[in-house]
Amino acid sequence: MGLFLLDYGAGNVQSLANTLGTLGHSFKWITSPADFDDATCVVFPGVGAFQTAVDGLTSRGFLEPLRQYIISGRPYFGICIGMQVLFQSSSEASVPGLGIIPSKIDTFSNEDKTVPHMGWNSVHLLDPQQDADDGLDEALHYYFVHSYRATYDPEREPDAAQWVHSVTQYGREIFVATVRKDNVFGCQFHPEKSGDAGMRLLDTWLRQPVSARHRPTPAQRLPFPPRPKDGFTKRIIACMDVRANDQGDLVVTKGDQYDVREKPPPTTIIQPPGSPPPPCASSSPPLTVSATVAGAVRNLGKPVALAARYYAAGADELALLNITSFRHSPLRDQPMLAVVRAAAATVFVPLTIGGGIRDTVDPDGTARSALEVAGAYFRAGADKVSIGSEAVYAVERLRAGAAASEASTLDAEGRGRGDGSSAIETIARAYGRQAVVVSIDPKRVYVDASSYEGPRRDELILGSGEEEGKAWWYRCTVSGGREARDLSVVELARGAEILGAGEILLNSIDRDGTGRGFDLDLVNVVRRNVSIPVVASSGAGKKEHFVDVFENTGVEAALAAGIFHRGEVRIDEVKEALTQRGIKTRMTRP
Ligand code: 1PR
């Protein structure tokens, strides 16, 4: 008897388990169809893709018992896909849903906005008086991450509209944020990733007496016309570059243009008198040699402690990047997994994990696919994985394939498509494209614009102001900037979108750690060329730089590391500066 969590084997379900633990609710996992008989409450944290979810439920024999459980009138709380499966079907999948809500799930239009809808948005209760004590707060923001949604259309679908409890606006589209009827509550956003606001909603519902769940069916629902502006906010992300220091401890470090070691002054080595002369040296007295000795890896703190600090400080999202994963990244005994597990236990906003998401081999010779590596991170509590070097290689293959054989690699719009085997494609297929971030490490290549005849002519940026007279394009690198590739940032970003990435994390090796502000030319050129969300990264030195990047580019999120680690600027100061300029951000209760 009691509270059960339903896991169909994909996505980050650990975060919900952590949230319930923090709220003091004990629970069991549903491990067999018979568990539905014992359940007095079921929560389904449906993360990933509709098809994978229904396939996963079917293969475990859970689909029909779940339907019967819900029909029996016992409490059900569905999150994201856990809400969507209540509907008849989804255009994302070839399998039907549970058919409890008489409507369909369809994709967002990307005509006026980026898709996925990824970030913090507000909700509007349809019946604010009756539902005031449901724990949902119209003044707060909730974390959404999805490409498919249920529309709210009371005129054409009056029966489905009876289920709708609150709606959200993204661009000009109004869609279902929560459903509520008798024993069923469902939300499109992730309460377990929505900080205190989400926790309050979950806790309120789980503690609600059964009698309070049954409400009179609402009177006829009225249309909810879109407002001039949606409630979507700009995200502020704190990033932690993680690596082992010289003592072997995992620490958060921070580089200048990707060099994370302290820069000691050139060391003068004095050759002691009487020591043997080096080859070709004269026998004359003390020899002095100038040498640069590499400094220690900068240590800015412990990743889990810093993650907890940034969560408390109001970060909308956190990124943990394993920056030396290119050396070796065995999945077994991977210390980053322990870091993710510990961070996810105390952080209730989205976590992106990057570094080493690729096919790899354990020390015992066991091969691990990128999908398995990503799966291990998701199970540990990551919400998104970020792919760096592997994305470059995948896009290079995509472009080579398109050049070699038009017929097999061009889609209906004449764009290349992958062979399905890359890390981006396999992970997006299993977990949904919203779980796949492509991290780009570009570097400027300066050219003489008057004579340049190379292939990136259309991508050349002509400098202005202090950079008047200069021209450049942005070249991609792999292995943390150590190797330059013959691929431009535009080619990589477009290719990543085609392969199925849901977001671009756009670094800049030129600006990293400089405090000179984001490279707005870089951000704009990528923003213009893709229709998925873009995170601007590298170079933030003061709060005004965040205002600049949001006012001058259409970017959805901005990330910083150094200024937050060194305590030079606080996250709430950044948000205050944005609010003063009329840029919407998520507000947390003091
Ligand atoms: O190639 O899939 O294994 O991924 C490796 C990941 O590690 C990539 O995301 C790559 O960007 C990252 N990485 C590799 N080497 C470094 C390094 O610094 N030596 N860090 C590195 C990337 C950039 C940002 C940084 C921002 C903001 N660091 O993470 O946080 O530039 O900094 P700022 O606000 O202080 O300017 P794979």
What best-fitting shape do the alpha-carbon axes yield? globular
Ligand species: ligand 1PR
- CA radius of gyration: 26 Å
By secondary-structure content and strand pairing, the structural class works out as alpha/beta
Q: What number is the mean pLDDT?
A: 89
Q: Please give the share of residues in helix.
A: 25-40%
Q: Low-confidence stretches at least 5 residues in length (pLDDT < 50)?
A: 268-273, 275-292
- Range of strand content: 15-25%
How many domains, in number, for the residues? 2
* CATH class bucket of the largest domain: Alpha Beta
Which second-level CATH architecture of the largest domain applies?
A: Alpha-Beta Barrel
Termini Cα gap: 38 Å
Major sheet strand order: 2-1-3-4-13-12-11-8
CATH topology of the largest domain: TIM Barrel
The CATH superfamily title of the largest domain? Aldolase class I
How many individual helices? Answer: 19
Structure notes:
With 590 residues, the protein is an alpha/beta fold. The chain has two domains: 2-232, Class I glutamine amidotransferase (GATase) domain (Rossmann fold, 3-Layer(aba) Sandwich); 303-440 and 485-580, Aldolase class I (TIM Barrel). It is 28% helix and 24% strand. It contains 19 helices and 30 strands. The strands form seven sheets. The protein has an eight-stranded mixed sheet with strand order 2-1-3-4-13-12-11-8. A hairpin with a 2-residue loop joins β11 (164-170) and β12. α12 (389-404) crosses α15. The longest helix is centred in the last third of the chain and has 16 residues, at 389-404. The protein is globular, with a radius of gyration of 26 Å. Residues 268-273 and 275-292 have low confidence and may be disordered. The site of ligand 1PR has 32 residues, from β14, β22 and α12.
